[in-house]
Design a protein that fits this description.
The protein is of the alpha+beta class. Helices cover 35% and strands 25% of the residues. The protein has 4 helices and 6 strands. It is globular.
């Protein structure tokens, strides 16, 4: 089984939102084969608790604006690892240290990587 078109659309919205708030090292994994209820994990790194919170809030806001329903959110108060579950897409926004410590890429290394298409950043244009 592979991730649905809707999951890919959700991923692009979430990735653009994360990028807009300074999210780094975005990696999307197709976990639809081992996990029957989830299609994609999006992993994002923030540089501080404030940045992690801002990234998570922006992702949640943009997906809600697009009409997607949030099932649950965890970790927002500490903002070291915020998990936002939108059903087909589960977003993990990590502080740098938590991302290294928990190593979700290692745990899900057998899952294919899903390409993320981010718009060209205005900061790179001269």
């Amino acid at each position: 089984m592979t991730a649905s078109t809707q999951s890919h659309d959700m991923l692009q919205i979430a990735a653009a939102a994360a990028d807009a708030k300074g999210g780094e090292d975005l990696v999307a994994l197709d976990v639809s084969a081992p996990l029957p209820l989830v299609d994609i994990f999006l992993l994002v790194t923030g540089r501080s608790e404030r940045n992690v919170a801002a990234i998570a809030d922006e992702i949640e806001d943009k997906l809600l604006e697009a009409g997607h329903k949030r099932l649950r959110r965890e970790g927002r108060q500490e903002s070291r690892w915020v998990l936002i579950d939108f059903g087909d897409l589960v977003v993990h926004v990590f502080h740098e240290q938590e991302r290294v410590y928990y190593g979700l890429e290692r745990l899900w290394k057998d899952c294919p990587i899903v390409p993320i298409n981010l718009p060209a950043s205005a900061a790179t244009e001269d």
